[in-house]
Structures are given as C-alpha cells and as structure tokens.
Amino acid sequence: MFHKIKYILLFVVFANFFSCTFKGKISQDESLQADMSLLDSLVIQSSSFKTIFIPKSTFRLDRSGYYRSLKSTVYAVRDSILIIQLNTSLGIKVAKSIFAKDSICFFDLQEGKGYTFDYQYLSLAMGFDVNFIAIQNLFLGLYDPNFPFFSYNTGASILTESDCLVEGSLQIESSDNSINSPGLISFNYSKTFCKLNSYSISTRANQNIFSLDYIWGSEIYNSFPQRIEIDFNFFDQIIGIDFDFKSIKRNSEISVSSDFPNIKVIPLPLEHEVF
Hints:
Largest sheet: 15 strands, mixed
Number of strands: 15
Distance between the termini: 71 Å
Number of helices: 4
CATH class: Mainly Beta
Shape: globular
Strand content: 35-45%
Mean pLDDT: 68
CATH topology: outer membrane lipoprotein receptor (LolB), chain A
CATH superfamily: Lipoprotein localisation LolA/LolB/LppX
Number of domains: 1
CATH architecture: Clam
Helix content: 10-25%
Radius of gyration: 22 Å
Structural class: alpha+beta
C-alpha cells in the first residue's frame, strides 16, 4: 500500500510538471506582438547608469584554436569610453583596450607595443559596419535593433508558450545595404520571474561570422548580462571571446588610467593587420 501511494504521488508531481509544457504556436499577430515585446524588454533605460565598473570578471580568448583564460576589469562611461584591462591570475597586466568615440587603442603590455585605429578599420576587419555606440551596446547587453543591421522576417516568426515559459525565434534578414546573410534571434523568457534568460544572434556570409549570446542571472530582466559569448571575424582569423561578470558597480567614481606613456603607439592604416 505504501509503495502504491508513493507511485501515485510521483505521478501527481510529474503531471503538475508537464502541465507547464508548451501549448503550441499561437496566432501570427499575437506571435509578432509578443516577440517584439520580449526583444524590447532588453532595453536598459538611459537613466539607469552613467558609469559602469566591473572589477572582477573572467575573460576567455579563442583565437583560431589558441585558448587563453585571463582576469579582466571593465570600466565604461556611458556613450563616451569603454576600457577593458586583462591580467593574469597573478595580477600581471597583459593587455588593455580603450574604445573612445572616434578611435580604439590597444596596448600589448607583454610586448610593450601599442596600436591605434578607427572604427572604419574595425568594420573592415569584422565584415560589417560598427561604431562606438554599437560596441558599447553589444558589450553591455543594451539591445539595439539597428545592430547588427538586420530586418525582421515576421512571417517566419515562431513563438510557443506555457503558463510558465515563453520560447521563440525571429527569422532575420539582411537589409539592402548589409553584407550579412539571414540569421536567427532566439530567446526564452520565464514569466514567473519576468526576465529574459538568454538572447542570441548568429549570421554567416562570405566567410564572415558573427555570433552573440547573452545569459542573464537571477536578477530582473533589465539587469546587465552575467555572461557574454561573442564569435567574430578579424580579417582572416576567427576570434571567440567569453566574459563572465562577477560583480557590477553602477555610477561609481573610479579613476582609471587610459594610457601608458612609455609605450609608443603605432597608427594602423586600413591595409595593415595588427594580429
């Protein structure tokens, strides 16, 4: 008798669990409205922060099969500057990248070399147009419908939902002036916690690759992502970068050095490659 009751209880638990399964596709109008609503939920209000300081994060680099894991510190002044410094686990400085509005400066601190280039150079290297705002929004998880330069094919939109969870995808197409091929945005959304769990974009065209994944933690949906994974072309190499953010401080007054006076900085023309 005890075993029978135990199996009945087990059946009830499974029945409750599977009652939260997908009901199937909903109508196209509802699908489109819900899809765009979920994507819009990624927007962080402009008043949310002026500065961001991420003192502890893990940085992993995959450069054409060469892997390296480092510690990183990130500092950003909204719409002005983004600084990423990489250190070894022992605290030895390895590299620093400084993204300003009009230019980028990269310091290879192990080699004692510095390079500066503009966003036209970076756009050529990656295979599509980027600027400072696009890089800032990409890195901080600020959703920008104009980056990458896709339009949405709502006819191919799919959304499935249950009482607890929404999952969906948007087929995305190249705009007329874009070199990108059709790709896909996929997402899943926990209604219970009203937050976006993940967000990804991937596209491939003319041997150009761009893939972007965000993973949020347990905070509300408009928090900064806990993990970012980016894969992209840099000329003839494929670069993979992963960031795990351990803590984030908003609107902190932090003094950050943005140059190294003992390192000569070399300007890079468009036909030159740095890596």
